[in-house]
Amino acid sequence: MVLERINSPEDLKQCSMGDLNTLAGEMRNFLIERASKHMGHVGPDLGFVEATIALHRVFDTPKDKIVFDVSHQTYPHKMLTGRKKAYMEEASYDEVGPYTDPKESPYDLFSIGHTSTSIDLAIGLAKARDLLSGTEKVVAVIGDGSLSGGMALEGLSIAGEQESQLLIILNDNEMSIAENHGGMYKGLKRLRESNGQAEDNLFRAMGLEYLYEEQGNDVESLVKALEKAKSYEKPVVLHIHTAKGKGLKFAEEDKESWHWHLPFHLETGKTREEYNFPGEDIGELTAEFLLAKMKKDPAVLVITAGVLGGMGFYAKQRKEAGKQFVDVGIAEQTGVTLACGAAKNGAKPVFFTSATFLQRAYDQISHDAAINSLPITMVVNSASILGMRDKTHLGLYLLAMANSIPNLLIFAPAFKGEYFSLLDWALEQQEHPVLIFAPEGNVLEDEAPVKKSFFPVSYQEIPRGKKVAIFATGSLYEEGREGAKNFEKKTGIKPSLINPGILSHLDKAYLENLEKDHELVVVLEDGILSGGFAEKIASFYSLKPMKVLSLGLEKEFYDEYDLEALMKEYHMDRESMVERILEVL
Amino acid sequence: MVLERINSPEDLKQCSMGDLNTLAGEMRNFLIERASKHMGHVGPDLGFVEATIALHRVFDTPKDKIVFDVSHQTYPHKMLTGRKKAYMEEASYDEVGPYTDPKESPYDLFSIGHTSTSIDLAIGLAKARDLLSGTEKVVAVIGDGSLSGGMALEGLSIAGEQESQLLIILNDNEMSIAENHGGMYKGLKRLRESNGQAEDNLFRAMGLEYLYEEQGNDVESLVKALEKAKSYEKPVVLHIHTAKGKGLKFAEEDKESWHWHLPFHLETGKTREEYNFPGEDIGELTAEFLLAKMKKDPAVLVITAGVLGGMGFYAKQRKEAGKQFVDVGIAEQTGVTLACGAAKNGAKPVFFTSATFLQRAYDQISHDAAINSLPITMVVNSASILGMRDKTHLGLYLLAMANSIPNLLIFAPAFKGEYFSLLDWALEQQEHPVLIFAPEGNVLEDEAPVKKSFFPVSYQEIPRGKKVAIFATGSLYEEGREGAKNFEKKTGIKPSLINPGILSHLDKAYLENLEKDHELVVVLEDGILSGGFAEKIASFYSLKPMKVLSLGLEKEFYDEYDLEALMKEYHMDRESMVERILEVL
């Protein structure tokens, strides 16, 4: 086995082309085997095996610097840079993270998980090299899907002004997570079909040199192409055509479903039974609800930025939605601002993405939606400690971020009926941009009458108690409810339990009323405390005798955390919450 | 005078071409006259007189929808849409705002003040039109400078996929606020020089149709070009070449200085004496400091995103800085992430922009800088109630926004020596991204020994008092100090006065120590309370008897506010602050 001999990129330089081809096959087999047993990205990595081998063969890493966009295609890179055990031995699968991480290896330059950053990072690396008279080569690897993000396009233009070495590899597998959207993809198609010769070349329009290599899954062709590209002493784009999912039939045939996948049976491609979660899927329910609403109302417009599954808009639902669905590609800024334009002209837009990706649209939510009081609805998933747990994908900061925007209503509904009633209300009202955190975890049946109107603010009290009031926000409602029960068991005192629903504005009348017969307000914050809901409550009572106990996270990045341990550490689970309450009472 | 007859765009349709030419001259004269007496944008408006006339002649506004990017070029538009008095009569100059505003006129679709949003807004308007079977035409007007912003480029691509009418007018005056940066501008130059015929057309690469009109300051040519463009039932770019500052010699010759200008003498172009502020300019001092540091250290790299004056980097300073200065154009995302790449490779980057524009880079500050613990320094101006006061340009939310990002240190220095020592420290440390709010208002001499190190946190106590502690943050230090004096005069009690310096992290030891002999902590917050510094203090004491009085703004948008009145309303000035303290004591 060639792979046995490869412990660092240095070893690749001793290999024959035949060896490198064999190596690609071996790596691909291990990747497929691992994917069948360990969740993770599939298509992006299978398509980038040969290119990774060629890159490490031609360049002198880690002296030469390679930045991988998103870095979800770096499993082959990790295999070649001292971490192959994590791909070859099941017991070691968890020894590497899913993205590049400088803590893992000197071959990984940055922790990366969002798209479209690689060109800008590479320009910065090159700029520092030039200032400090370095000689290393700098390479950015970016997929065609990531190219739709504005900062990648900004980067292309700024790279086009640079006067020293910078190689941008466009890994074109004709796909984003799902299909690409945007006129630029017609241009890329023309380039692929003309072997790079077509007119109106985006990269040349940005002031860059351009090379094309059709054989993006052939090591020898890639080595030649890279040798040539490496010789340029100015910025150049090497556009390579690769096959997403190469070598795994299911992934080649259904690229969208196999961008990322749960463990599966190698023979059938079916997800392993133990990963088939029972229960309802809030995303699928959301798509169902919106499709029904679209049929009744042509003004309803669903917009997403490249992440389609989270709100249940798979190929079937997209087809059903027709012109009432727009995928803008990975372009959250455009997603939000397009929604603003549509709202202004009478549409009822819903923009969906994951919490961590909405960060890209902060300015647009503020400047385009909120200043203009445009009734756009934004729905995000994973804005919860129960959501995604890689440090580059955390939704723990979104409330704090969004809470700085005036005129924006932010809701974290706890119950299913509440969530859909809220979504409906948000689409029909004409006053405010609305941000909704879709419930994570178990989909809960309503424990209070479902409201029809959600602003001005009024909290749901379930039920009234005394002495202690527990605010259980959004996806942490269940934990708070169980905590309240435990507290009652332990003390005989029935606390008030509140589902605030809205996290951007206070129900001041309710809070004042609590002062009558409560001495402690407990806030269970689903994220960091800094800038969140608990600080607002504490601030409200800051001249009053009411004590406020804030149970939430410190302002830190958390990586691949153990949910139970983290909640325990911060007294957020149903048991330790009670201990902490008893301490401060 | 033709302008006398024009009360709405409808009236333009009755004019001969000769009349329209005369009108352009009349409008330009009024604009110049007004600019000489009223601060505001100059160059963008003078260059866009003819195009505005042609637009309102050819299109049927307000049924047809025109979105102006930034909307700083809309003085001519306002003159033609019922607001000419505000440009013709000095007593009425203040009756209009500097940007489009739907509250001002039905011809203004959005409040806009940031760049690069127009294409996305227009796509949204067109999308809603198509869903609701409307027939109105949709037009986006965008300058070449705004085109460097990523969301504009995203928009071009998404527009390139649309199948119905959408006109994008590229108003190319060969300038951003200062000169343009990015390879795309080489492409635009080739297009201008070839009358639109050059190869590698950016717009066609994005899937759009393309037209070129060289005579961008000739009404008749523009009317013809617009008639043609209007007939397209698919997205088309009409690239017009205009002259920024046309008709005002000074503005034609020094486009950067005359993008926006203070009132001036018509004969000499010199700023009117009453607008020559005495005192030190923190921006110019910053440039001086950084240029001196650059000379000693080749690793220092100053980056800006199109706004050069705020940190004192005018043409002379840019030349002096040479390769150690990068202007990325209006591309804040790239500015921050390029800085991250540079920091990773040994440079000491400082990124500068205005507070309101840093909003665009939230995700990059979090994902690229903070997660990676990269030592980039960001300096912003106008992150204060004393800063810019148009609702689209407020810096009142930046602290709250940035406070949601772990690992980011946020400083609001009060004193000159403190600010420069901090800047130096930030550039030399290797642990954290640092965000510095440059002091606004009077540049203050230090009232305490200048620190050399700024993290871990330690507050500056000036001096220790008792009973009441007043935290006077950043640019509000002076107000807080005077408030403290007034309080002492009134009560005989000397309060503690604190310059916290850092607003992202608490000096917990200090806060605990205050509990010994203080019963009230007053926090003077330079911005909104939500998510700011005061909420953190309130939260810190939320289980303690210490009272916290938060003096800051409600989470709202404020427009063209009267500073004194606003501070009085929120008890933030030196007098009413004391009244409020006495109330709660």
UniProtKB/TrEMBL annotation, chains A, B:
The Transketolase-like pyrimidine-binding domain, residue ranges: 280-446
Residues in coiled coil: none
SUPFAM superfamilies: Thiamin diphosphate-binding fold (THDP-binding) (SSF52518), TK C-terminal domain-like (SSF52922)
InterPro entries: Dxylulose-5-P_synthase, THDP-binding, Transketo_C/PFOR_II, Transketolase-like_Pyr-bd, Transketolase_C
Entry keyword Cell cycle: no
Keyword Transmembrane applies: yes
The protein's annotated pathway: Metabolic intermediate biosynthesis; 1-deoxy-D-xylulose 5-phosphate biosynthesis; 1-deoxy-D-xylulose 5-phosphate from D-glyceraldehyde 3-phosphate and pyruvate: step 1/1
EC number: 2.2.1.7
Cofactor(s) named in the record: Mg(2+)
NCBIfam families (alphabetical): PRK05444.2-2 (NF003933), PRK12315.1 (NF008968)
The name this protein goes by in its record: 1-deoxy-D-xylulose-5-phosphate synthase
Origin species: Oribacterium sinus F0268
Lineage start: Bacteria, Bacillati, Bacillota, Clostridia, Lachnospirales
